[in-house]
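Reviewers asked in the last cycle whether our approach scales beyond single polypeptides. To address this, we selected a multi-component target totalling 827 residues and predicted its structure end to end. The input consisted of the following lines:
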Amino acid sequence: MALVHKLLNGTYILSKCLKPSVASCPFLSTRFADYCSSSLQKPVATPGKASAQRNSAGGLQGDHQREVALDVTSPEEKPEVSFDKAIRDEIKEHFWRLKDEIVNHWIGPEGRPLQEVIMEQARVVWQFRGKEDLDKWIVTSDKTIGGRSEVFLKMGKNNQSALLYGTLSSAAPQDGENSQSGYCAMISRVPRGAFDRKKSYDWSQFNTLYLRVRGDGRPWMVNIREDTDFIQKSNQMYSYFMFTRGGPYWQEVKIPFSKFFFSNQGRIRDAQFQLLLDKISSIGFTLADKVDGPFFLEIDFIGVFADPAHTEEFAYENSPVLNPRLFK
Amino acid sequence: MRQPRLREVKAVSSGHAAGGQLGRNSNPRLPASPSDPRILAASLRAAVGTPRAGFGFPGGCPGSRGLSWAHAIMLARGLSRGWRGICAAALTGAPFSQVPSQAPRGLHCSVAAPSSGSSLVPRPPEPPRQLAKPPAPHEELFRLAPGGARDRASFVQAVQNFGQHNVHKRGHVDFIYLALRKMRDYGVERDLAVYNLLLDVFPKEVFLPRNVFQKIFIHYPRQQECGLAVLEQMESHGVMPNKETEFLLLQIFGRKSYPMLKFVRMKLWFTRFKNVNPFPVPRDLPTDPVDLATLGLRRIEPDLSAKVTIYQMASSRDSTGTADPTEQHIVGIQSPGQQAALARHSPARPVFVEGPFSLWLRDKCVYYHILRADLEPPEEREVEEIPEEWNLYYPMQLDLKYGRSAWDDYEFDIDEVEEGPVFAICMAGAHDQATLAKWIQGLQETNPALAQIPVIFRLTASTGELLASSSGLEEPCPPPAQEEEEEEDKTQRQQQGQS
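The resulting structure, written as structure tokens, was:
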């Protein structure tokens, strides 16, 4: 079954690679989020859904939806020459993961005792203490559409933080289709279980996102994607701004989940609904503030916690002018 | 199939001889219908002669036997692309490009071929764009008068000139697109009055839908796209439209149009996100570098009781007007807590001057240096003992547990990054050791302990040069790397810090 799944997966990716420019207009084409995590292929080149996010108030542009992982963190690993051995290793690893999952199910959610999970009020979701923590992230830039921004991710000082740095260039690619460009993004990979099943995060008991970052004064955008089983959902995300202060001190950014606004295919929607936290797929940071030049962002860790003082459920009302159907 | 560029399409439609050349070069791989397409301009017909069989002119006029399937497909694609462009552009933030919007012009003009990407015949490399670009229509209105400068007045004059020579405002869509492109050169991209003036160029009440069929379909789609482009540029520069804009849009497009919808959305989302930045940067940054440095330092130092000291002003220009002043400005900031910490710092351990680090204030980048010490190893950390005072009447120190009860734990299960204390921050015009040495000397006046503490300069980037040491200063051992300036400076610090 694993082989069948892998075959299907493999051909799926192949068919996508064969038609690089799926449609002239990106709005009607469907984009699939598929991160291949198998050891056979390098985790690269899957058309995904990193859309360019402009940080101007209320404005999002969404025509750049192809994503290529420009993962420059791990050096080139020579693939195994023996194909059969690689397949066998893969099968063993997946069965090992399956066994872990079954065993963990008896212990509690995600392998931790139920009492601990229920009483938890602050959880560290992503930390950057080693190279393997960087492998959970993909960095992209507008090079995928022909722009000239560069972005790199590496471990920071003393292996205590991750450093996302690069150069932003808003020179539009001269392909007649995009009139604006200039974005860089860092997106987390979708967590995978046994046989590459997609798993999701469950943050329903928390209500605030906590980030410890050190930036250079540039405004970033935090995007959260929900479980992307449906095609339409793979273009939807919830976003909010993260303003860095700059300076040598660490900055704590706390964003309640009620502040995230909904957008589809990179555009803010009129009908807003709150972010539901039970099936979170990935989180991402985007820089697209139309200012050319070098940038950096140092991240210590990313966590979620339950702020008892925050009682707001959702920050944005729906307006009857824009959405008369919701108010009938 | 070759996709003719917009200008080539225009050249064809206006009947230049060059257009004939392009028409002939178009790829004849399209399966030819028996009805050969008629060629538009008479000059083209003359140039080409009898239409050849298999001449696949992309999207020419339909022949006598009706629309061939190829043309139908191309027209459908073009129109649907235009439709998609409208629908997509109608929502907030519409980054449609201008090429597809102007391409489908109806059945009687050449339609740009669908951008399928690959051309079947390899083309020679095209000449560089600057040479081959024909002037855009109405460009002559923006030509500067001799001795004139590109400022708001000349822009307004050019916009007003358009209406004067052209009562029927022919080509107003092209003119508005051109004006939008030129706004940045004239420095008026954040001027609401200029945007309203540009919207005023549209003829009023012509584009209002009058019956139900016009209301169903997008009435005057190109003009609506143009209105959307104006609003979109306003949005991207953060200009809030006002009542005059609303009235103009009502007059031009009507209440149910896409520009009006975008206006409503802008009003809603702009007001929601107006104060979303917890560290706002003023829109008009000071041009004086000392003021800019002060603003930046106040921003990065959260302690409000910190004092900004200007150690050196940039020297004024000589009478001969030399370009680079010999002295750069040096502005520093230090809070009382940092002063006390520096006074307590033991002279056995050095302090480091690190930098330069970049700080962005909107679109200006300034660089700062910090004076910091390394983290003390745990065994050397002193616990401050406050001398105990006791009083008969009431306790001076209460050891109450203010924390929450046992089941409330809001701490994250991770060790935070610990770094050494920062003693002072400065921003200087130059990033070399001489300038920073002056800063250290200035700091020594308020921190006499600094004279005994060895100072090591860990400057990165190519400008960090090492000079000979003076009393109390030591040279750093590792040389700065030869990295590009885009590389993060902290990586150097990491490499040097771990040595």
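Residues 120-305 of chain A form a domain with the Jelly Rolls fold (CATH 2.60.120.430). We regard this as preliminary and will revisit it once experimental data from Aim 1 are available.
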